[in-house]
Each structure stands twice: as C-alpha cells, then as structure tokens.
Input
Amino acid sequence: MNEYIQSLKKQGKLNVSIDKSKKFNWGYFKIAGPCSVEGESIIEISKEIKKCGADALRAGAYKPCTYPILKETNGWKEGLRKEGLELLKLAKKESGLPIVTEVMDARMIDAVGEVADVFQVGTRNFQNYTLLDELGKQKIPVLLKRGTWGTLDEILGAAERILVGGNQNIAICLRGVVGAPSYRHIWPTIRWTPDLMMIPALKEVTNIPVIYDPSHSTGYRNFVKPVSNAALAAGADGLIIECHPSPQDSISDAAQAIDYNDLKEIFNYEK
Ligand code: PEP
Ligand code: MN
Output
C-alpha cells in the first residue's frame, strides 16, 4: 500500500462509513434510465424502469458530448438543459423515483440541485476541483464517475475533495477506462475498457460504495448484461445502466442502451 493511502487510512479518511440511515441508502443500488432526457417520454420511462426494479432514475439534462453540437433534435442540443430539468421534476413526481443527473459546472449546482437527489459528476469532470470542492459543501449525495484516465490514487484524491468539504454521502462510479480495445473493427462503439478489478481494489482501501456502469464501459448493448453480472460478482454496490424504450433510437449513446426486458433480467440477478 503506498504512502498516500497509508496516510489517508491513518487519518481515518478511508474509513468513512456511509450511514445507511441517511436520506440516501447506498446498497445494491439500481439506477437506470436513458442517457439523456429526450422529452416528455422521460415520465413514462421513469414508471417503466421502476417496474423493472430500479431504485433511481438516471438521465442527463446537460450532456457533455465528445463533439460539440453535432446533433440537434427537437431542442436537444447537448441535452434539453433547463427544460430537461423540468421534465425530470415531473418524472420524479409521477414515479416517486429519486433522480440521478449530471452537474457539469459549479455554477449549475443550485439549478441542478433543485431536482437532483444525486449529483452525477461525469468522467470529464472527475478532476474539476472547483466543482468537487463546491459539491463537498452540499448535502445532496454525489456519484463521482471515474475519469477514463484515473488511477487509484486519483480516484481517492477526487473522492477526498468532496469528503473533506463535509459531504460524506458519495459513491464512486466506475465506467470504463482508456485502453486498447481491439473490438473496434466489429463493434466500433466500444471505446473504453471495463475496469472491473478496480471494484475489489477500492474495497480494499475504502468503504465508499462502488457503483458500476456497464453501459459506458462496454459501449455495446450485448455486453451490458455479462459485464453487469461480473461487476456484481466482483463486489459492486450497485449498477447504473442506460435503458430506453426503443434503444436504437436513443438520441445519445444508442448502441449501448438496453430495453426494459434486459433491464429487468439484470436487476433480478441475485447478488
Ligand atoms: C453518462 O452517464 O451519460 C455520461 C456522460 O457518462 P460519462 O461521464 O461516464 O461519459
Ligand atoms: Mn451516456
């Protein structure tokens, strides 16, 4: 164990135990929903994913796309933004499900916090210290997605930024990392390499819950189920899965979206 981790352990910082009685109950936590809020359909989707066993609805109102503004669909331009937040409010009211949605910028914390039950920090913001420091001052739980480049030390350091600010209600989300996927000639949407071993590695050094994202880490719907099962077998505390009523028609991340039947099957897996 390296010096940095040893010193965090000594300070008790890695022994943070998430208080299960708190507002948010990280456990085998099942999060699902489309990559992004696409319109009023999010209300129906929220009810459907609840029937599939989801504990929370995920969907981005603000979407950090790899290429800016390639797509514009019915007002969707890197997300429906403000309108997306309003629709998430309605979905929450109708389904009763808590909302996990991305906050991309410290200046957006108040607006996104009006609807988010969990702030999602996207991979691109994994080391955005301004954002992490501000989220440390919030009471709303944070799902911190690993940067595609993040080492174990960097994951712990990023998590610590939120913890030292006073927000103890965090979970780390593993979502695939930069690697050398050799699948590209057959499945071009595979961009990342699943980072399954980081689950037990994190469990060795911290009590922070680990949520696995089999959607972004595989990039292809046929691999979502096996990798979900592998993540649970490796000790993940939950899953966050992209799901859509008509997966191939998703505005963003269509190739990795699964349908309700597959979602139900994955969520029924006995840990
Ligand atoms: C997402 O969850 O839709 C997303 C954009 O994820 P990531 O930040 O991991 O790419
Ligand atoms: Mn996505």
